[in-house]
Amino acid sequence: MKVENAQIQWLDSGLPYSSLFDDVYYSKDDEQAESLHVFLNANRLSQRWAETADSCEGREANKSAELFTIAELGFGSGLNFLQVAKLWQESSSRPSRLNYIAFEKHPLTCEQLQRIHQRWPNLKAQSDELQRYYPDHSIGCHRICLSHDITLDLYYGEAFSQLKSRYTKVCRAIDCWFLDGFSPRLNPKLWEQQLFGLIAKTCNEKSTISSYSVAGTVRNALGDAGFAVQKLPGHGKKRHMLFAQLKISELSAVKEPSDKDFNNLKPWFKLSPVTFSKRTVTVIGAGLAGCSTAYSLARRGWQVKVIDNSDAPASGASGNSQLALRCRLFKSYSDTAEFFLHSFLFAARQFSALKIANSIDWNNCGVLQLNTAMNKQQAISDEELASMYSKQVIQALSLDTANKKAGAALNDPAWFLPAGGWINPETLCEAYLSHPNIELVLGKNVDAIKPERDNWAVIDDRGEHITSEAVVIANAYSAKKFEQTRHLPLQVVRGQTTQISANGLSSSLKAVVSGKRTVFPESQQCHVISASYSNTDLQESSSTNDNECNMTLAKSNFSDKDFLSTQIVSDRVSQRCNSIDQLPVIGMVANASAMKKTYAELSRNATATIDSPGDYHRGLYISVAHGSNGLASCPLSGEFLAALMTGENLPLSQAMINNLSPARFVIRDLKKQKG
């Protein structure tokens, strides 16, 4: 999942020069002025934002018009983005949200980015924020939430494959495209007709495209993809620039390029776009899954009501006083491995932002993963990890270096996750719920969910109804109680944590150490040890044996057996929720009975071709079964659901969405003749 960074040389002028493409990043004739002329002004951004804002004023319907989406081929140092962000922030009349999507095969390193940004002191506010969260590694979509109304999606890797991976069936059209790659002569793959064919599929009649290049090959390729192309006056010494709009009459004739390396979207995973006029939603569950989803929805203007049957948020499996943020690791590439990597990275960025804004108890101390923490049944070698993950994600440390990172003498060398750390989940959930668009209702036990005209009614054990346009089920295993989700194969996993007092030795622990048990640095003069694991013994009371086992295995992380105290302060039992395939269940809830009828032929012929789209409960969503990875997977899952419900670009690929879809179990059961 590694990417190759840009190879930069620095010209005497201070401009960056690409050794790989033998080309400069910017014109010598004032790169900022050229960016404004070719991209921001040519696409009439200020005027279109004002027109969009005026069309939305005083209207409840057509909320999707409050979003403006820009996509770019060739992010480079982000100059176009920075200028768009500055213009956006200075515009008095604009839509509610900006989604900027960019594709880059060879990202600049953080150091290169910082050096280039020094050229533009007038963009310092925007560049400082971008640098704070900018990733320079790992393929796939890096979602970065900037300010309160700008979302940047950075796709690293081949533009064609990354654009092809997007799930576009439920996303609104992209409003304008910036074509700003290296010269077509030097980087022809970024200007090919098959790529422009994909771009055409993201556009409507109002979408615009601009570029500095008016090469004949570019104009012809865009024309073949269905665009009407024209030349406009260029900037500085360049006579012309390119401007294009889609000819809608020809859109149906533009065929998406076929490629045997990409799977067609299975019909049972096809979702229909859903528009919500009032954007009201009820979230059932105030743990990490529910609170993170509520937060992502609230940031998009949804009015959110969070319901939980406990007397405080984060009272279930999310309620340990310390939770570790780490990446679930894999030995080879898969869409699942990419999902867990980007979940981890997004969570780290979000926690850092919340620490600045809400002072949450996020400790980016890093996580040391000992060899004893690795899954012995699917052991991952040092070589496999090093080939899969960038050093910014995970680093192999010698025993001596690991000891220094830990501030303790360990029993094994370790892998270090520098972006990891630990957090108090209660402060995290409180920060999520502090958004003014969120109302928290505690002590309410939900018994049923029923459709009610165009809304959903959430019904408690007293028969009281709470009505909203949409519902998100985020109450872990308790989702089994609802008629719409009781078919899901969810499992309960019992875990017990042990809290011990800190001593003179253990107080020196500086990082989370994960071996056969995980030991956290001192907090309030105590260490948390987590956690026992059982899916057979589900007793709710704590176990002396589990405490003893936790203590013994925690001590095995360290070479000094007296490093940890033996004084137990408290313990805690919680029940996590897993699915049978160990993946979260996230997305629109499938209508299981209808899908079993539609796809009944699969029980007789597992390879049958059925064109009918899947059947889903309109406005009903779910996020459960995050298991022991919930701290990492819940934030990005919440972002995905919020984007799905709002019609924005989705931060997960089509393959990831399929892998996590609640419908996957219905189809698997049919193919195994269990339906």
TrEMBL record:
E.C. no: 2.1.1.61, 1.5.-.-
Reactions performed catalytically: 5-aminomethyl-2-thiouridine(34) in tRNA + S-adenosyl-L-methionine = 5-methylaminomethyl-2-thiouridine(34) in tRNA + S-adenosyl-L-homocysteine + H(+)
Highest rank taxon of the organism: Bacteria
Swiss-Prot/TrEMBL keywords: Cytoplasm, FAD, Flavoprotein, Methyltransferase, Multifunctional enzyme, Oxidoreductase, S-adenosyl-L-methionine, Transferase, tRNA processing
Main location: cytoplasm
Cofactor requirements of the protein: FAD
GO cellular component terms, semicolon-separated: cytoplasm
Subcellular location per the Swiss-Prot or TrEMBL entry: Cytoplasm
One term of GO molecular function: flavin adenine dinucleotide binding
Spans annotated as FAD-dependent cmnm(5)s(2)U34 oxidoreductase: 284-675
All copies of domain MnmC-like methyltransferase, residue ranges: 123-246
GO biological process: methylation; tRNA wobble base modification
Region (tRNA (mnm(5)s(2)U34)-methyltransferase): 1-247
Residue span(s) of domain FAD dependent oxidoreductase: 281-644
HAMAP family named in the record: MnmC
Family membership noted in the UniProt record: In the C-terminal section; belongs to the DAO family. In the N-terminal section; belongs to the methyltransferase superfamily. tRNA (mnm(5)s(2)U34)-methyltransferase family.
Function: Catalyzes the last two steps in the biosynthesis of 5-methylaminomethyl-2-thiouridine (mnm(5)s(2)U) at the wobble position (U34) in tRNA. Catalyzes the FAD-dependent demodification of cmnm(5)s(2)U34 to nm(5)s(2)U34, followed by the transfer of a methyl group from S-adenosyl-L-methionine to nm(5)s(2)U34, to form mnm(5)s(2)U34.
The protein's name: tRNA 5-methylaminomethyl-2-thiouridine biosynthesis bifunctional protein MnmC
Record gene name: mnmC
